[in-house]
Specification:
Radius of gyration: 38 Å
Keywords: Disulfide bond, EGF-like domain, Membrane, Signal, Transmembrane, Transmembrane helix
Distance between the termini: 122 Å
Structural class: alpha+beta
CATH architecture of one domain: Up-down Bundle
Number of helices: 18
Protein name: EGF-like domain-containing protein
Subcellular location: Membrane
Main location: membrane
GO molecular function: signaling receptor binding
Strand order of the largest sheet: 28-27-30-31-33
Length: 818
């Protein structure tokens, strides 16, 4: 085709041309190929200068400039792909800026990102320098800030320095991983932020920057400017606006077109696309479907599977289901999905959009056949049960050791035998295969990877070595954590073993949010009754003890000061326990949303409880020591000196218990559970701190116990020896027997206290743990038993003593009759 006949035609719509320059008859202006090549990678257009006269001009791409796009812009060519670890249904704004060392913005762009819509897209962004040529003396970097568009909250930032400044075009490829939670501001920043908060970059924790409030800019957020963005928008520097949902444009004053009415079916809601893109690979709108439906417009119903558990089986925290789709002349296709099982549920419901023939349930390392169908199952409602008879045993349980240890090639020829010899066997497995027994009692095996790594493809958000499972390798919409034993929670955040066990971990998942106390589970109601009983009993017991020991006569010696302090400590302990329980109940029910209050109780209340209980044990040991010294010294015992020593020892006891437990509050923090919509108080010890904590528990338990027992035995034997010397009519053994009867309370009291505190130590030493939040009774009772000594001060120290009983009676008489 000749140049004279080769043309490109552009139609000029009449409605886009002013009346003065209106061209009649919808004229077509021909652009010849020769003219098209005049614009280097640009778009040739004709501009009307006057009637019937047009001037050829070029619209250049961002990479070039000039009247014919003949010059190349110095720039940063950025290829960006984003991977979300959570919030797949939330839209984010990624602000991309080319900045210098003084945080001056050379150029910027932004991306509207919705994971379920854009997870597989690579975004290409050009960032131009503000001057031509660029200033080579400046060190520039690409900074990326992420914002949640629904809440307009800041999420995180990344920084990428331009390493080779001499290149005219610096190409940068980035795979961003959006963090699970919002970044936490730093307490200190260099330089300090005047009107902003200090943060560190995700990919460079040592580098800090100031995120300025609206109306402020600069490296220290100390330069004021007037924000001209639309209301509810975020102002970033002087000329950047982050638009909320439903708005777009340079100043966010333009309304984003909504989706057509009834575009999304079956209850789905529509998310409009970025108006700046018209390419087919960027969808203009996306339907976010409810759990039961899928498709571009939520037009397809997912297969619903209701799974229950046989009475003989323990219900796990989560269930892994493997769907097998049989293919002709190809290996079966395996799709796996994980489902959490709520604390109060005895069955589980899951949905899948995949067609399948076979389904296996995997729980606690065992496989069960739950669905078997010759034709593929699509959009069906299925009810099934996991029963022991449908368990798939291992070949190591079916064959003897000789066959089991053979190589697979030699061993697999025996795989027909289990189906033929065991008529009720329906499946079995080895290290590589899963096998079914068909109707003719022949085994049908297919490859099955038992060693699949569940770490959410390198983005594991589970704590404490939990396995992370996503429902799709490229574009996930959900993730689930499978926890090791002794841990549970949506992120395996709760340790339920040993000394880290807390009331939050024992009872937290038993509290249902947003329902009244009357609708709570039995264990919650039982705990309410138990804590109330402990509080009331402790209140009266310690009040009566305080009345008894708060007299001049009882405080005449150091022992009285110890007993008085013990009653005060025990009274505070039962009060703090009551406060702890009701704050936990209120926060998990959703009645308290004050994060500062929740954080304060998380750090201080459990710490104070541990300190108070340990202080009570040591004070009882101090009482025993002074009684032993009294017996040992006899009439030379100095009461005044014992009071001085008691005051110092009480102070030392408090300082030592606080010092030995100080690691506890610094190891506590709050985490937000998005799946459960709750906030949890977590204790996380390093292995060395865990060992230290165990040693401290042993110290605070064994030493007071040993001191109490040794002192009691010393008092009895020493008294018997002195009496036998003075009264020789009776033998030493007879005097010892008499002293045992007279001072038995000295042995009974520490023994009772030790027996009640023993569960706390036993729990610390247990090799096992609370395997499930469904069975917390042993740990719940053990936790509360350790607080019973704080309720028994009156019964242990006052009632066994005739002197203290008389003093209590006199104090009550003075109270009533005065």
């Amino acid at each position: 085709m000749s140049d004279s006949t080769s043309t490109l035609s552009y139609e000029i719509p009449n409605q886009l041309i002013d009346d003065d320059t209106l061209i009649e008859d919808d004229s077509l202006i021909d652009v010849y190929y020769n003219d098209a090549w005049l614009c280097n990678r640009g778009l040739p257009i004709y501009i009307q200068t006057n009637v019937n006269k047009f001037k050829l001009s070029c619209l250049c791409s961002p990479s070039y400039y000039g009247d014919k796009c003949q010059y190349q812009n110095q720039r940063v060519s950025l290829s960006l792909q984003i991977r979300a670890t959570s919030d797949w249904w939330n839209e984010f704004i990624f602000l991309i800026m080319l900045i210098d060392d003084e945080q001056n913005i050379e150029s910027h762009d932004h991306i509207e990102y919705l994971s379920v819509r854009d997870c597989g897209i690579k975004f290409n962004v050009y960032l131009l320098y503000s001057t031509r040529p660029k200033n080579s003396s400046e060190n520039c970097s690409v900074r990326i800030d992420a914002f949640d568009r629904m809440t307009m909250n800041y999420r995180s930032s990344w920084i990428y320095p331009i390493q080779f400044w001499f290149l005219p075009v610096y190409r940068l490829s980035i795979l961003l991983t959006l963090p699970y939670t919002n970044a936490e501001p730093l307490q200190r920043c260099t330089p300090s932020c005047v009107h902003g908060q200090c943060f560190s970059y995700i990919n460079n924790q040592t580098s800090m920057f100031c995120l300025c409030e609206s109306g402020w800019s600069g490296t220290r957020c100390d330069m004021k400017y007037i924000c001209d963005c639309a209301p509810n928008s975020l102002c970033i520097d002087k000329n950047i606006c982050i638009c909320p949902d439903g708005h777009f444009g340079p100043r966010c004053y333009l309304f984003q077109p909504s989706c057509p009415s009834n575009w999304c079916l079956n209850g789905g809601y529509c998310v409009p696309g970025d108006e700046r893109y018209s390419s087919k690979r960027f969808e203009k709108r996306k339907c976010v479907c409810p759990q039961e439906y899928f498709g571009n417009r939520c037009e397809y119903r997912q297969t619903r599977i209701d799974i229950s558990f046989h009475n003989e089986l323990d219900i796990p925290q989560s269930l892994l289901v493997h769907f097998i789709s049989v293919q002709d002349y190809e290996n079966p296709i395996r799709t796996s999905t994980m489902k959490k099982i709520a604390f109060d549920q005895n069955s589980v419901r899951l949905y899948t959009s995949h067609s399948f023939n076979i389904a296996f349930a995997e729980m606690l390392g065992r496989f069960y056949l739950i669905i078997l169908q010759a034709t593929e199952i699509i959009s069906a409602n299925i009810t099934t049960e996991i029963i022991p008879s449908h368990q798939c045993p291992s070949i190591y349980n079916l064959f003897n050791q000789t066959i089991s240890n053979q190589h697979l090639i030699k061993r697999i020829k025996y795989y027909q035998l289990p189906c033929q010899k065991q008529p009720y066997l329906i499946c079995f497995y080895d290290d590589i295969h899963l096998c079914l027994c068909d109707l003719n009692r022949r085994s049908n095996c297919f490859e099955f990877n038992h060693n699949m790594t569940y770490d959410c493809y390198g983005q594991n958000t589970c704590e404490n070595e939990g396995r992370c499972f996503q429902n799709n390798p490229k574009c996930p919409t959900s993730s689930t954590c499978v926890c090791l034993e002794c841990y549970y929670g949506s992120r395996c955040q709760f340790p339920v073993k040993g000394s880290t066990l807390s009331l939050d971990a024992i009872l937290g998942y038993g509290i249902h949010p947003y329902i009244s106390i009357h609708q709570q589970s039995f264990i919650v109601k039982f705990t309410i009754s138990l804590t109330t009983a402990i509080f009331l009993l402790g209140l009266f017991s310690n009040f009566f003890s305080f009345v008894t020991f708060n007299t001049k006569k009882t405080c005449d010696v150091g022992c009285g000061l110890y007993l008085k302090t013990t009653s005060i400590v025990a009274l505070i302990a039962v009060t703090m326990l009551e406060i702890k329980f009701w704050l936990l109940l209120a926060s998990q029910m959703g009645s308290i949303n004050n994060r500062s209050l929740i954080h304060a109780q998380c750090i201080f209340i459990d710490f104070l409880l541990r300190c108070l209980v340990s202080s009570g044990d040591w004070l009882s040991a101090c009482i025993a020591i002074e009684r032993a010294l009294n017996v040992s010294t006899g009439i030379t015992f100095n009461k005044q000196k014992s009071k001085v020593v008691a005051k110092w020892l009480i102070l030392v006891v408090f300082l030592v218990t606080i010092g030995t437990h100080i690691h506890d509050p610094v190891s506590r923090y709050l985490i937000d559970d998005k799946e459960e919509q709750r906030t949890w108080c977590i204790t996380k010890y390093t292995p060395s701190i865990q060992t230290l904590d165990l040693a401290i528990n042993i110290l605070h338990f064994s030493f007071p116990f040993g001191i109490n027992c040794f002192s009691a035995l010393f008092i009895i034997t020493a008294t018997a020896r002195s009496r036998s010397k003075a009264q020789k009519k009776q033998s030493y053994r007879q005097h010892l027997h008499i002293q045992f009867r007279q001072h038995k309370h000295l042995l009974i009291s520490p023994c009772i206290l030790i027996l009640l505190a023993l569960p706390r130590l036993v729990i610390s030493f247990l090799s096992g743990c609370m395997k499930s939040a469904r069975n917390p009774w042993l740990y719940l009772i053990g936790y509360f038993i350790s607080f019973i000594p704080t309720t028994m001060t009156f019964m242990v120290f006052v009632l066994p003593s005739e002197m203290y009983k008389k003093e209590f009676t006199d104090s009550i008489k003075r109270f009533w009759f005065n």
